TrEMBL record:
Cofactor note: Binds 3 Mg(2+) ions per subunit.
HAMAP family: Lys_tRNA_synth_class2
Gene: lysS
PROSITE patterns (UniProt xref): AA_TRNA_LIGASE_II
InterPro entries (alphabetical): Aa-tRNA-synt_II, aa-tRNA-synth_II, aa-tRNA-synth_II/BPL/LPL, Lys-tRNA-ligase_II, Lys-tRNA-ligase_II_N, Lys-tRNA-synth_II_C, NA-bd_OB-fold, NA-bd_OB_tRNA
Positions bound to Mg(2+) 1: 413, 420
Enzyme Commission (EC) number: 6.1.1.6
Cofactor: Mg(2+)
Name by which UniProt lists this protein: Lysine--tRNA ligase
Name of the top EC class for this enzyme: ligase
Entry-linked NCBIfam families: lysS_bact (TIGR00499), PRK00484.1 (NF001756)
Record bears the keyword Cytoplasm: yes
Annotated binding of Mg(2+) 2, by residue: 420
UniProt GO BP: lysyl-tRNA aminoacylation
Length: 499
């Protein structure tokens, strides 16, 4: 189905009519208490509260209880001596307002017919009743326009186009229950994350969005300029290096839910601006942080869906419960490719395999070949939540070397629904090795790798003051909602970036 909003000429005509009604309301307000945009209206109950108070009224019943409610007019029918309007609250709950000649008088009824349009916010007060059709209603005695809408609503019986829903999210929220439910699910999930962290004695902190050096991830940054400092600045690609400084300072368990910005592509799982969770725990490692990550996600699923078995938007059930598999990267790649690949496998062998299966690697290194080949051979077969363990050294400059396997680091990526949801490390805390890693990243940058990390002397200075062993993790909040709801990333972001 497609969007059936009025055409441009029709919209202009309707807006002109509504502007005239606005002018009339304002003119009337010079001698009355109401107008087109009053500062307040005397609400006594929410629409949801009235519905909860009277869930099962019999047909044509009267309650004797008078309430005052307000909502947006989403349905309007004016017929002679009795007018009907459906008022919708922000949570999507609705109630019928009945405006009759017998209750409000001829003048007020005619004003209603002349002034009220679809989309207006209207206050009504009157007795709660059940209509002859059994619909919970307010038999209106007094009414007032709370805010005059100048633009018409789209047709509520047809679906908005994807373009309209993304660009005019407010219309999506007005017209579609799923849009409102997704916003609520996101808020519930984030609240659950905070509660889980509180249960483990983590502190929520804030770190800079504007940074003199971008770091903490391999990504292309957005660049800006500070007039006050006359210097180039970067929108953060990750909060990692600042959060680790907090741990150096003695804040042993910290996390941040933040906005990150990466000047890269946009698709069904990537957005240039996105919400990110990062957490660091002194004296933890990548196994303990994996346990915590599983707990965070499963608790969020229970909070949103009532169970770790979630139902996606298309009706598919997906099980986030149980203990998730932990799959070694090198052995799983070797098995899938039919040839043994180890941390010692040379570039010529990896390049030959990549060429054979049509995998292209820009600025190739051992680690980049391994990761691209793993995504080709293994990633498509991952159906259940899986921690992919033990990554190449050269693609993980902030991660500790594996305690028992030479040539790899203690890092995992968590895959859910076929996409990467989170990543976790045993963090590198040796400042000498960290400097060597940064120098190697600088060399890669000089060879044209725009995602390579910069050498950050301030971070290294903090490390040199002593950084305790720690485990750390990062998870996309938008992707967490994707895992729970089955929606694409733009659906999970309230106001996604569009051209």
């Amino acid at each position: 189905m497609t969007d059936e909003t009025p055409d441009i000429e029709d919209i202009a005509e309707q807006k002109a009519v509504r502007l005239a009604k606005r002018a009339r309301l304002i003119q009337e307000a010079e001698s009355a208490a109401d107008g087109a945009y009053p500062v307040s209206v005397p609400i006594t109950h929410s629409i949801a509260a009235v519905r909860a108070r009277f869930p099962d009224l019999e047909v044509d019943a009267q309650t004797g209880e008078v309430v005052g409610v307000a909502g947006r007019v989403v349905h309007l029918r004016n017929t002679g001596k009795l007018c009907f309007a459906a008022l919708q609250a922000g949570d999507g709950s609705r109630i019928q307002a009945m405006v009759s000649l017998a209750e409000v008088g001829e003048e007020s009824l005619e004003r209603w017919k002349d002034l009220v349009d679809l989309g207006d916010f209207v206050f009504v007060s009157g007795e709660v009743i059940s209509s002859r059709r059994g619909e919970l209603s307010i038999l209106t005695r007094d009414w007032q326009i709370a805010s005059k809408a100048l633009m018409p609503l789209p047709n509520l019986h047809t679906e908005l186009s994807d373009e309209t829903r993304m660009r005019q999210r407010y219309l999506d929220l007005i017209t579609r229950e799923q849009a409102r439910a997704t916003v609520k699910a996101r808020a519930t999930a984030v609240s659950s994350l905070r509660a889980t962290f509180a249960g483990h004695d983590f502190l929520e902190v804030e770190t800079p969005m504007l940074q003199t050096l971008h770091g903490g991830a391999s990504a292309r940054p957005f660049v800006t300029h500070s007039n006050a400092f006359d210097t180039e600045l970067f929108l953060r690609i990750a909060p990692e290096l600042f959060l680790k400084r907090a741990v150096v300072g003695g804040l042993e368990r910290v996390y941040e839910i933040n906005r990150n910005f990466r000047n890269e592509g946009a698709d069904s799982t990537h957005s240039p601006e996105f919400a990110m969770l990062e957490a660091y725990q002194a004296y933890g490692d990548y196994t303990s942080i994996a346990d915590l990550t599983q707990e965070l996600i499963q608790n969020a699923a229970r909070a949103v869906a009532g169970s770790t078995v979630v139902t996606w938007a298309d009706g598919t059930e997906y099980d986030l419960g149980g203990d998730w598999a932990r799959l070694p990267m090198y052995s799983s790649l070797s098995e899938a490719a039919g040839v043994e690949i180890t941390p010692q496998t040379g570039l010529p062998e990896l390049a030959a395999l990549a060429e054979k299966v049509g995998v292209e690697v820009k600025l190739p290194t051992h680690g980049k070949y391994v990761e691209e080949l793993w995504e080709h051979f293994v990633k498509p077969g991952l159906e259940h939540p899986t921690f992919v363990m033990d990554f190449p050294v050269d693609t993980s400059p902030l991660v500790r070397d594996h305690r028992s396997i030479p040539g790899v680091v203690e890092k995992w990526d968590l895959y859910v629904r076929g996409f990467e949801l989170a990543t976790g490390y045993s963090e590198l805390v040796d400042p000498v090795i960290q400097r060597e890693r940064f120098v190697e990243q600088a060399k890669q940058g000089a060879r044209g790798d725009v995602e390579a990390m910069r050498l950050d002397e301030e971070f290294l200075r903090a490390m040199e003051h002593g950084m305790p062993p720690m485990g750390g993790m990062g998870m996309g909040i938008d992707r967490l909602l994707m895992a729970i709801t089955g929606l694409g990333i733009r659906e999970t972001i309230l106001f996604p970036l569009v051209k």
